[in-house]
């Protein structure tokens, strides 16, 4: 009988579980087919051209556009229905971030359209159709994420699973295409300047996909071709952010949530001045280092070595500061006794997994550099700075991941209902004067009495005469009131210590936020010592090391941006 009673609920879960498995397998196969097509184009496989890859991507984007239009249309017809929302998904600051990246992506698409017009005589029509389709796809997708990123879909669940997972892997393929195109450009620049470091034994063969015809307007072609590669880092971040938000939407399909009020945590600059100042100093100095590095690298062997030395010394200093800040934050957490929130939360789980998963890219590069330094027979002076730099990269990410993951899992501090009113009791004609608001009123920012009553002290001596009939009763309570006031003052002191800890944590989060933005800039805009160092290429071989760098670098770049986003959330929550 028990089995029969339980069978309906168990049987009802099978179709949805099967739909989840089938949709995930569909998405993976969709991605693998596109990945192989991208790889075939990259290695100049026979019979595979760029037009084939772009046609595949255009088809995927058109299918996603049709699904989003269907979903938006169905949502408009059901506007009056009350829908469940995941309050943790699609935070406003995340939507603002993806909107900023989308705007720059639209500028990139306009540059591609201009580039196609100038080289239209020898380019495939798909290279003109792709940026137009991508621009429409970007606009509609951002609108969709703004309106429906928090949705918990409870109808047409099987169909919606396929639609959402199709969108996830479409964005991942667009991200892969952007990463590959940007990496090929960086590799060509690296090959051109590698000879200046004295590594003449490495064969320089440029992987050129340039059009085989003349540009109609030389100046515009130069602006478009160069500007495109400076905008690619923002396009790459846009697609990876979109895929993560869509993945959370996919995980939320059919999910049952508890209805409770979500505490809003707006970002405030108050109390984080120190962290912001130090972080802005790091950001400004990093931009200056990147500019000097890009100017000096490849000019001559001496200038290239000086640029690498300058980069390593600056990075070592910044990483050491970040390690120190992270250790201080973890020590403060150890001194506090606060429980962790272990409730089911797809967005928070994905954040933690992405932090550890993408950090592996940097760890792979760092361990490669450490092994190269140990195994190399000759060591130019500048390569020795690479050793502490690589070690600190590993340690810093380890500490920072612990800090962020613990921060997003910590329960927010609540006001205890047993907290009593803090009073300064004064014996005056047998009455007690309440001069200060309660702690709850201070905490909630309601220091003024809501009832409009004037404190007894402001009423003058008449207040005491009005209460003469209760003087005896109040006098008998004076002793207990004074003792209770001492207890309240002790609690208020402890609360002051807690506020100081929170202020330190907020400053650390703000500092690490700006530091991660600073460390995102160098690799995103071509400042990559893993390419220019040259030592790893001698130990591992040119082609193997370049493959490792091209695979690991996108994850390393994404880690910094994702860490910055997570630290922004930590600052709001602390």
Automatic annotation (TrEMBL):
<keyword id="KW-0406">Ion transport</keyword>
<keyword id="KW-0812">Transmembrane</keyword>
<keyword id="KW-0407">Ion channel</keyword>
<dbReference type="GO" id="GO:0005886">
    <property type="term" value="C:plasma membrane"/>
</dbReference>
<feature type="transmembrane region" description="Helical">
    <location>
        <begin position="229"/>
        <end position="250"/>
    </location>
</feature>
<feature type="transmembrane region" description="Helical">
    <location>
        <begin position="53"/>
        <end position="72"/>
    </location>
</feature>
<keyword id="KW-0375">Hydrogen ion transport</keyword>
<keyword id="KW-1133">Transmembrane helix</keyword>
<dbReference type="GO" id="GO:0042472">
    <property type="term" value="P:inner ear morphogenesis"/>
</dbReference>
<feature type="transmembrane region" description="Helical">
    <location>
        <begin position="538"/>
        <end position="559"/>
    </location>
</feature>
<comment type="similarity">
    <text>Belongs to the otopetrin family.</text>
</comment>
<keyword id="KW-1003">Cell membrane</keyword>
<feature type="transmembrane region" description="Helical">
    <location>
        <begin position="354"/>
        <end position="379"/>
    </location>
</feature>
<feature type="transmembrane region" description="Helical">
    <location>
        <begin position="93"/>
        <end position="117"/>
    </location>
</feature>
<feature type="transmembrane region" description="Helical">
    <location>
        <begin position="271"/>
        <end position="295"/>
    </location>
</feature>
<keyword id="KW-0813">Transport</keyword>
<feature type="transmembrane region" description="Helical">
    <location>
        <begin position="504"/>
        <end position="526"/>
    </location>
</feature>
<dbReference type="InterPro" id="IPR004878">
    <property type="entry name" value="Otopetrin"/>
</dbReference>
<protein>
    <submittedName>
        <fullName>OTOP1 protein</fullName>
    </submittedName>
</protein>
<feature type="transmembrane region" description="Helical">
    <location>
        <begin position="311"/>
        <end position="333"/>
    </location>
</feature>
<feature type="transmembrane region" description="Helical">
    <location>
        <begin position="129"/>
        <end position="146"/>
    </location>
</feature>
<keyword id="KW-0472">Membrane</keyword>
<dbReference type="GO" id="GO:0015252">
    <property type="term" value="F:proton channel activity"/>
</dbReference>
<feature type="transmembrane region" description="Helical">
    <location>
        <begin position="26"/>
        <end position="47"/>
    </location>
</feature>
<dbReference type="Pfam" id="PF03189">
    <property type="entry name" value="Otopetrin"/>
</dbReference>
């Amino acid at each position: 009988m028990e089995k029969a009673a339980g069978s309906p609920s168990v049987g009802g879960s099978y179709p949805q579980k099967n739909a989840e498995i089938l949709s995930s397998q569909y998405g993976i196969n969709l991605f693998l087919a596109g990945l192989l097509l991208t790889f075939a184009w990259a290695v100049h496989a026979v019979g595979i051209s760029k037009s084939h890859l772009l046609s595949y991507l255009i088809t995927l984007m058109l299918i996603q556009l049709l699904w989003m239009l269907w979903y938006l249309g169905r949502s408009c017809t059901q506007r009056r229905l009350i829908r469940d929302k995941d309050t943790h998904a699609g935070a406003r600051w995340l939507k603002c971030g993806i909107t900023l990246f989308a705007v720059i992506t639209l500028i990139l698409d306009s540059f591609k359209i201009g580039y196609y017009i100038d080289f239209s005589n020898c380019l495939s029509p798909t290279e003109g159709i792709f940026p137009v389709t991508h621009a429409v796809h970007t606009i509609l997708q951002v609108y969709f994420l703004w309106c429906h990123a928090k949705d918990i879909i409870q109808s047409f669940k099987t169909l919606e699973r396929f639609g959402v997972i199709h969108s996830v892997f479409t964005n991942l393929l667009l991200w892969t295409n952007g990463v590959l195109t940007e990496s090929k450009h960086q590799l060509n620049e690296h090959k051109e300047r590698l000879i200046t470091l004295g590594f003449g034994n490495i064969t320089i063969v440029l992987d050129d996909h340039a059009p085989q015809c003349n540009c109609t307007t030389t100046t515009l072609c130069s602006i478009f071709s160069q500007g495109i590669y400076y905008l690619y880092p923002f396009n790459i971040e846009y697609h990876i952010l979109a895929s993560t938000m869509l993945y959370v939407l996919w995980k939320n399909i059919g999910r049952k949530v508890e209805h409770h009020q979500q505490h809003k945590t707006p970002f405030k600059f108050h109390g984080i001045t120190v962290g912001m100042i130090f972080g802005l100093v790091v950001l400004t100095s990093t931009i200056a280092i990147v500019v000097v590095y890009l100017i000096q690298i490849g000019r001559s062997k001496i200038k290239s070595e000086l640029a690498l030395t300058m980069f390593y010394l600056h990075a070592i200093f910044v990483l050491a500061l970040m390690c120190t800040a992270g250790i201080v934050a973890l020590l403060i957490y150890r001194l506090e006794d606060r429980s962790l929130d272990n409730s089911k939360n797809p967005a928070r789980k994905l954040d933690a997994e992405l932090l550890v998963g993408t950090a592996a890219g940097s760890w792979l590069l760092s361990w490669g550099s450490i092994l190269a330094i140990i195994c190399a027979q000759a060591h130019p002076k500048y390569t020795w700075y690479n050793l502490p730099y690589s070690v600190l990269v590993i340690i810093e990410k380890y500490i920072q991941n612990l800090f962020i993951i613990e921060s997003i899992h910590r329960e927010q501090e609540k006001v205890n209902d047993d907290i009593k009113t803090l009073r300064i009791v004064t014996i005056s004609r047998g009455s007690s004067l309440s001069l200060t608001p309660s702690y709850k009123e201070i905490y909630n920012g309601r220091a003024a009495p809501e009832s409009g009553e004037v404190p007894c002290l402001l009423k003058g001596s008449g207040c005491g005469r009005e209460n003469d009939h209760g003087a005896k009763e109040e006098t008998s309570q004076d002793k207990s009131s004074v003792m209770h006031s001492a207890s309240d003052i002790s609690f208020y002191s402890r609360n002051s210590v807690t506020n100081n800890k929170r202020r330190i944590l907020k400053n650390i989060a703000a500092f690490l936020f700006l530091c991660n933005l600073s460390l995102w800039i160098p690799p995103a805009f071509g400042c990559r010592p893993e390419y220019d160092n040259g030592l790893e290429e001698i130990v591992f071989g040119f082609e193997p090391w370049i493959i490792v760098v091209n695979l690991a670098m996108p994850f390393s770049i994404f880690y910094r941006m994702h860490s910055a986003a997570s630290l922004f959330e930590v600052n709001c929550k602390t």
